[in-house]
Design a protein that fits this description.
Shape: globular
Order of helices and strands: EHEEHEHEHEHEHEEEEEEHEHHE
Low-confidence stretches: 337-341
Number of helices: 9
Strand order of the largest sheet: 14-13-12-11-7-10-9-8-15
Number of strands: 15
Mean pLDDT: 91
Oligomer: single chain
């Protein structure tokens, strides 16, 4: 444990692209001593933090918590070792490569009474934070549909999972989080066009437990990089662009249009459009601050729990099952809410 009761000792497993982003934030995080990282390939860090060759060397440093940013295939092995040594963990998404592995991690950290979270960073994007708050306040009224698009060029750093587990898990998590609902059923189709064993394009349609419709388009095949979330309801539509952290509200029309030709062209429901000004702090920094506070004894309401991460892995598994079997899949344990009037 840390020598000071006010400071935490943190480590990092994995120095890929995301791992180095974590290293940058850890080296600057108030109240935290970034004591070491580990990666089989070695390397150096601008902060001068030591880079060790093995997890055992890192565990010998008596950490308070560690960030797991190694490939998804190793999350279970590394997470189980951290839990066995009494080390809290922030695990990059997805929580694990399979539902069984994710459940093992949930049980391991829970049995030790350790704080553990999943790095679903989109929850900390200012646009989505604002969107969720406005939905909770009822600004959109009844929610009808959530549509997401997440597409861009193929990232050569990803080799162990396909686009469903790597990218679509962002949309699965944020959809459940902003609406407060779970997935009830879904249907999916995938394509593999980049010569890899894993899928690189997926389309998903489905519904949530309250009847809200969902649609996701995710791929690594587009030269266009897009991060789009639209939530449509009885009072209009919110559109979040998480690349720019902008949130825009398109309201239903409240003013009658007497110009008949224009009304026919634009539609009778067009109203005001407002782009909200929100503080734009770096999502990864906010994620680290929330996790640091949870490990330090503050209420852990600001982190993505392992059980939430498990549910996302379960939905991702259902997406792959649906695509493989070409059937609609109902999510296990989904309890449909009463039908809305």
């Amino acid at each position: 444990m840390s020598d000071s009761p006010n400071r935490l000792r943190a480590g990092l497993i994995g120095l890929g692209a995301m791992g180095r982003n974590h290293a940058r934030v850890l080296s600057l995080l108030d109240g935290v001593d970034f004591v070491a990282a580990t990666d089989p390939a070695g390397g150096t860090l601008p902060s001068g933090t030591p880079v060790l060759r093995s997890l055992d060397e890192l565990l010998a440093l008596h950490l308070d918590y560690a960030v797991v940013a190694c490939p998804t295939a190793f999350h279970e092995e590394v997470g189980m070792a951290l839990a066995a040594h009494g080390v809290c963990a922030l695990v990059e998404k997805p929580l694990a490569h399979s539902v069984v592995a994710a459940r093992r991690l949930v049980d391991a950290f829970a049995s030790q009474g350790l704080v553990a979270g999943v790095g679903h960073i989109e929850r900390f994007n200012p646009a989505l934070q604002s969107l969720r708050s406005r939905l909770e306040a009822g600004e959109l009224g009844e929610v009808y549909q959530v549509v997401t698009r997440r597409q861009g060029p193929f990232p050569h750093r990803i080799a162990d999972v396909g686009v469903v587990k790597d990218l679509a898990t962002h949309d699965i998590d944020l959809t459940g989080w902003v609406t407060g609902q779970e997935y009830a059923s879904l249907s999916a189709r995938t394509l593999s066009k980049s010569g890899r064993e894993h899928e690189d394009m997926v389309t998903v349609t489905g519904d949530l437990t309250d009847g809200t419709l969902v649609s996701h388009l995710v791929n690594w095949l587009s030269p266009l990089k897009e991060r789009f979330t639209a939530v449509t309801g009885e009072r209009g539509c919110f559109v979040a662009d998480t690349l720019t952290a902008d949130l825009t509200h398109y309201a239903n029309g409240a003013v009658a249009t007497e110009w008949e030709a224009l009304a026919a062209f634009r539609g009778v429901s067009e109203g005001d459009m407002i782009r909200f000004a929100t503080p734009k702090r770096e999502p990864l920094l906010v994620e680290h601050e929330r996790f640091r506070d949870a490990v330090g004894g503050k209420e852990a309401t600001g982190i993505v729990t392992l059980r939430e991460g498990l549910r996302t892995v379960e939905v991702a598994a259902a997406v792959l099952e649906s695509a493989r079997e070409r059937v609609s899949v109902r999510l296990p344990g989904a309890r449909r809410a009463p039908v809305r009037a």
